[in-house]
Amino acid sequence: METTTPLLNIDHVGIRFGGLRAVADVNIKLFPGELVGLIGPNGAGKTTLFNLLTGVYVPTEGSISFEGEDLCRLPPFKITRKGISRTFQNIRLFSELSVLDNVKVAYHSQAKHTMASSILRMPGHFSGEKDMHEKAIEFLKIFNLDQYMDEKAKNLPYGQQRRLEIARALAANPRLLLLDEPAAGMNPKETHELMDLIGLIRKKFNLTVLLIEHDMPLVMGVCERIYVLDHGQLIANGTPEEIRNNPKVIEAYLGEEVS
Amino acid sequence: MTIFKQSKGFWLSVLLSFILFTVVQLLLTGGILNSYYENMIIFMGINIILAVSLHLIIGITGQFSIGHAGFLAVGAFASAVITMKFEMPLFAGLLVGGIVAALAGMLIGIPTLRLKGDYLAIATLGFGEIVRIVFLNIDYIGGASGMQVTHMTTWPWVFGCILITILVIRNFTNSSHGRACISIREDETAADAMGINTTYYKVAAFVIGAFFAGIAGGLWAHNFYIIQPSNFGFLKSFDILIFVVLGGLGSLSGAVLAAIVLTIVSTFLQDYPETRMLFYSLILIVMMIYRPQGLMGTRELTSLFKRKTKGGSKDGNHHTTA
């Protein structure tokens, strides 16, 4: 594993908000095809790290490179187009848009037809839209969401909304997928389905996945490696087995049972 | 070739608009509608263009801009300069009015569209006032006393401009580019994370909206014999905003409907200007209490007819669903 070049290299990254050091000196390497977990108590800086990766925040120290390219200072939409896509901790769907249109928005950056061709309704517009429409339907079928196609996203049940958010993130054609607490608020059955789904999409789309999760059985069950963040710093990294027995991790969770 | 492949609804609306045009034209030339009504109809048309152009900015892209009268003023004065000072035809005047307003939209849009919500509202409000005061102090265009403009705006011009405005904005909205704008309205952070260049689309919506407001300005200037900077104050921006809010944020036909209804109302109340504003405010208050989503909500008139056909996508992409 260590012989290949990393897909994502987070090198001594940190960010300060005024006097607060939200994330400090974080080093993470992700290799192609890996499924890696990122855990830590509330407020440890996990989502902040995601925001750093996706360009929402600019790191005040260190550097982030993806496939050898420096990502720092790129705006979020450019980072997405380079191949990093994400979901959000609190679902952020386009709630007034239909399920199908939510996916289509993610396809937009791959659209071939120009604004002028759409306004003048030139042939390019029709072929572009048709192409997008068919691809989006195909996509929804993979996620078993095609029966809700014309439903507004806000009307979906909670679990399906999470599913749609993952589908939408994948429609943006990423090579690295960042999942921010995808199982939050799900019941055990839904969580189980989610685990299967993550396994499925990983193989199907040849993805590398970085997963933030509080649901320990989920993390321990699917992740090959786990990083543990506490107070903005990495305190451990290793296989689920190693993490489970790491005294520092147990301490960070204040004696909470880690398994 | 798919270029002529449009839905039945499209051809139906082409037919209906042609009938509407001919009927009004015949009524006007036949003298059945006097100049009082002609004026009202032209004013209504200008208001429709303004409402639809602001609908793109507020209703579709979600950028709360309340300086639309600024673009109207820019278009009015630019087109009046072209026809009066350079003695060019009305068409050139309208086009230049639109282009200059669009440039103004880009100029004001690029710095201010970083702002969100109420901050953007205040910035655009400021823009509207700046335009008014700048025009007030340019002697070339008459300063406070304004410019004399020949009456050239006729029903065919107004109708043509309405048609182009609605068609362009409808086509834009019902495309991937329009969806990009709606996604910004729904959740800008998520739109950004989905690879949408949010700044680009916000500015694009602003520029297109400003362009048509500029054209409306051109029609306005050549309708009222005289234009003065004081015509384009904050209250004018507020008038246009009311069309969009009352019609239902996000509904093009709602904006058109509200523009029609409110023009009729305000025409009949024009002898009592104070009562007009009182009445307006009352309508708004009642509306916000009993129907906060506006006349049409986010729906379009066409969706009322489409109910029966099952499985058609709701965004008007008829060509993709068989």
From TrEMBL, chain A:
Domain of life the protein comes from: Bacteria
InterPro entries: AAA+_ATPase, ABC_AA/LPS_Transport, ABC_transporter-like_ATP-bd, BCA_ABC_TP_C, P-loop_NTPase
UniProt xrefs under CDD domains: ABC_Mj1267_LivG_branched
The protein's name: ABC transporter ATP-binding protein
Record keyword Nucleotide-binding present: yes
SUPFAM superfamilies membership: P-loop containing nucleoside triphosphate hydrolases
Entry keyword annotation includes Amino-acid biosynthesis: no
GO biological process: D-alanine transmembrane transport; L-alanine transport; L-isoleucine import across plasma membrane; L-valine import across plasma membrane
Domain ABC transporter: 8-256
Key words, A-Z: ATP-binding, Nucleotide-binding, Transport
GO MF annotations, alphabetized: ATP binding; ATP hydrolysis activity; L-isoleucine transmembrane transporter activity; L-phenylalanine transmembrane transporter activity; L-valine transmembrane transporter activity
Pfam family, one: ABC_tran
Cellular-component GO terms for this entry: plasma membrane
TrEMBL record, chain B:
Primary localisation category: membrane
Pfam families, per the entry: BPD_transp_2
GO molecular-function terms, A-Z: branched-chain amino acid transmembrane transporter activity
Alphabetized UniProt keyword annotations: Cell membrane, Membrane, Transmembrane, Transmembrane helix
Spans through the membrane: 9-28, 40-58, 65-84, 90-110, 155-173, 200-220, 240-265, 277-293
Subcellular location: Cell membrane
Membrane topology, from the record: Multi-pass membrane protein
GO cellular component: plasma membrane
InterPro entries: ABC_transp_permease (IPR001851), LivM-like (IPR043428)
Domain of life: Bacteria
Full protein name: Branched-chain amino acid ABC transporter permease
Organism: Peribacillus psychrosaccharolyticus
